[in-house]
């Protein structure tokens, strides 16, 4: 009899653990929905219940009736989609704003049109002491612009016009003067961080890869204490409208990134501000921050010690120091990222400010302390250096599974195979590997057709096998109207630019992702990259109530229409951060 009683108790225990929690009424119930849970054990459902800040039910609409009480707010979604809250794996959300001030040159095709646009802006804003702008694409122009051409637009005040990547800047003569740049100013890292010069050796008007940062600061264009709150409010406000509940900030992309000491101060300033929002309940997006390592004179032990000290202060599920971001090079569009082979038609393969030995040192020291490391791997040589470092760390016995490769644009066969075989996590920016803003033409020009089809945009082959890949927009290297996670979902499902009805799939050798692969790249996979998969990224009982509600059934939406789907509700930690039509 005793054995029978124990057997029945065990059986009932198993049944209870496998069933939804129905012991109390919920605060909110979303029902009659197309629920995509991102949980492979229960991929779909009809209803989700929220109690406090946790998910307390995932199941059928009929079973959900048991958790509906007199005070339960019930949302009948009539077949519309409910998903885990979107997680950005790579957006510089907090500092972005300084790099999108002034006049926008996105979409402008010629230098003449750019000059006219800047002149019009300058004349319309006579009280601005510094004329700022952003978004020019020298590949559309056909060449780099000059300071004399910018002088035609504005000559009485300094002017700093960022390119669309925010790595390079176009300056007028007054900017060089006020920024105290002498004609013989030394390049920080020749071939990586340098001034463009004429054949005669004179400054031509463009600074590459933050060579311009000191001049920008001396001209008074960088005032973080005055501006950070405004930037954060605008960017986070837009993010929640797009369904975002968490963001990985892979280095605060500020003009001080190439100076380790100045960057420390700016990082602390921003983190103090965010912590204040957290304490008052006004932090609307979970924020996971990587400290930056881009100073060519920086030391591995110094950045690790700095990061660990910050992690002691900021280590909650709302605001957390994730680890370290290494930014060793420029970008392939300006031929300043480091490739294994020469750029097409040139005798250069680029270079790096932080080379393999320094990358290795950061990974080994950081991983030994339990900190993950992400590396900007724009060029194939840098991919190799980062993969070598990750594997060396594993061989040393350091168990840090969420080291990251950011961008993953041009990757050789050897490294691609090692990434797959060893489960190395990847983040990428799909727009930069499409025909958006002339990127396809630029890739073919600087990399060549053969390399593009063989080595470029290999994230799609990773997604096809279920590899951990997250996708994001890399704000502000793309404008804020491209921030939406659904924008990136559409790109990987079509290989086309959602904003261009005439866009063509690119590259030809790649295959579009399926819907479930694309959605995992903005939910559970970036959650795993942040080591938060037990708390966010999927709809499961006990996880935080981070949800997004779409106004239609995404499973029945044509891929080329996905970016246009409206987000009608965003819930983070059980509270609406955005509600429009729900």
Structural overview:
This protein is an alpha/beta fold. It contains 19 helices and 24 strands. The strands form 4 sheets. An 8-stranded parallel sheet has the order 8-15-16-17-18-19-20-21. A 6-stranded mixed sheet has the order 3-2-7-22-23-24, with no helix packed on it. Strands 9-10-11-12-14-13 form a 6-stranded mixed sheet. Helix 9 links the parallel strand 15 (244-250) and strand 16 (286-293).
Distance between the termini: 55 Å
Structural class: alpha/beta
**Number of alpha- plus pi-helical segments:** 19
Share in helix? 25-40%
Total beta strands: 24
Q: Give the low-pLDDT segments.
A: 1-21
- Multimeric status of the protein: single chain
The chain-level mean pLDDT equals: 93
Radius of gyration: 25 Å
